């Protein structure tokens, strides 16, 4: 008998997955896991690096696009259907963060963060719903944050966007249930990635410095969050929907 740690474990064989924010970090690790477990993957990112993914993961279909634009979501779903015959899995991973006091947060800051984290996820989920309905069901998971359940200073826009994403997930679960579509969100803790590289050159080192704030004494590795995302869209989580699943090293347990 194979297990999920075995190379022969292909629980996504015959399934098609769409991953946003796929070029780096958690998104890239999610592409790797889905691909290694048999999925055919459409990988979306606005970074040019996404076109390099097929060099590592044969057969992955890269697509460069801005997730806040309706046409990007439509193109991505059309690509999945045209190339692989349908869509079974959506991983809404693209995200943007911001750390500013409320008095220094501009309307543009607010709109930019909300556009990626909430609007983008809504657009992709909406387009995926149609394709999954035709397929007879599917699974959607989003990369959220523990700030969708707790408040941290200097995070008005980011926290609000992840809170919106958590509520969107619950609506997707309720509307999707009769269609065989599940939806969940991972409330991730601090992850050592280059997520902050748009405004910090030391993103990984800075994020790793929060280790002592977690009961586990360290921050997450990208592959650990990817593993939770993949579990939630797998048959092993067949009765899990509408859930906010914490993967935060115990931070919200304190």
Report on the structure:
The structure is a single chain. With 254 residues, this protein is α/β, with parallel strands linked by helices. It has a single domain, classed as Rossmann fold. The protein is 39% helix and 15% strand. The protein contains seven helices and seven strands. The protein has helices at 25-36, 53-56, 70-84, 107-135, 156-176, 203-208, 222-232; strands spanning 16-20, 40-45, 61-64, 89-92, 138-143, 181-188, 244-247. It has a seven-stranded parallel sheet with strand order 3-2-1-4-5-6-7, with helices on both faces. Helix 4 packs parallel to helix 5. The protein is globular, with a radius of gyration of 17 Å. The model has no long low-confidence stretch (mean pLDDT 91).
What is the strand tally?
Answer: 7
CATH class: Alpha Beta
Tell me roughly what share of residues is in helical segments.
Answer: 25-40%
Q: Number of DSSP helices?
A: 7
**Anisotropy-based shape:** globular
Number of domains: 1
- The spatial strand order of the largest sheet comes to 3-2-1-4-5-6-7
Classify the secondary structure makeup into a structural class: alpha/beta
* CATH H-level superfamily title: NAD(P)-binding Rossmann-like Domain
Helix and strand sequence: EHEHEHEHEHEHHE
The profile of the biggest β sheet is: 7 strands, parallel
Mean pLDDT: 91
**What portion of residues belong to β-strands?**
5-15%
Enter the CATH topology name.
Rossmann fold
Radius of gyration using CA atoms only: 17 Å
């Amino acid at each position: 008998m194979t297990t999920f740690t075995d190379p022969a474990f292909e629980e996504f064989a015959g399934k098609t997955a769409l991953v946003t924010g796929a070029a780096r970090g958690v998104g890239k690790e999610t592409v790797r896991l889905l691909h290694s477990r048999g999925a055919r993957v459409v990988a979306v990112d606005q970074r040019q690096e996404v076109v390099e993914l097929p060099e590592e993961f044969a057969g992955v279909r890269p697509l460069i696009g801005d997730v806040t634009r309706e046409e990007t979501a439509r193109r991505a779903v059309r690509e999945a259907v045209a190339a692989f015959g349908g869509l079974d899995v959506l991983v809404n991973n693209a995200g943007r963060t911001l750390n500013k006091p409320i008095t220094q947060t501009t309307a543009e800051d607010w709109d930019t963060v909300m556009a990626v984290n909430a609007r983008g996820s809504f657009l992709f989920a909406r387009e995926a719903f149609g394709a999954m309905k035709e397929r007879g069901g599917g699974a959607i998971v989003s990369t959220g944050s523990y700030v969708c359940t707790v408040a941290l200073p200097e995070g008005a826009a980011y926290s609000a966007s992840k809170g919106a994403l958590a509520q969107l997930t619950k609506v997707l679960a309720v509307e999707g249930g009769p269609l065989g579509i599940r939806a969940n969100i991972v409330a991730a803790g601090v992850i050592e990635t280059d997520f902050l590289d748009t405004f910090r050159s030391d993103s990984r080192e800075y994020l790793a410095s929060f280790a002592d704030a977690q009961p586990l004494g360290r921050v997450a590795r990208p592959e650990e969050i990817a593993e939770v995302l993949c579990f939630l869209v797998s048959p092993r989580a067949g009765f899990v929907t509408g859930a906010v699943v914490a993967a935060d090293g115990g931070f919200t347990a304190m």
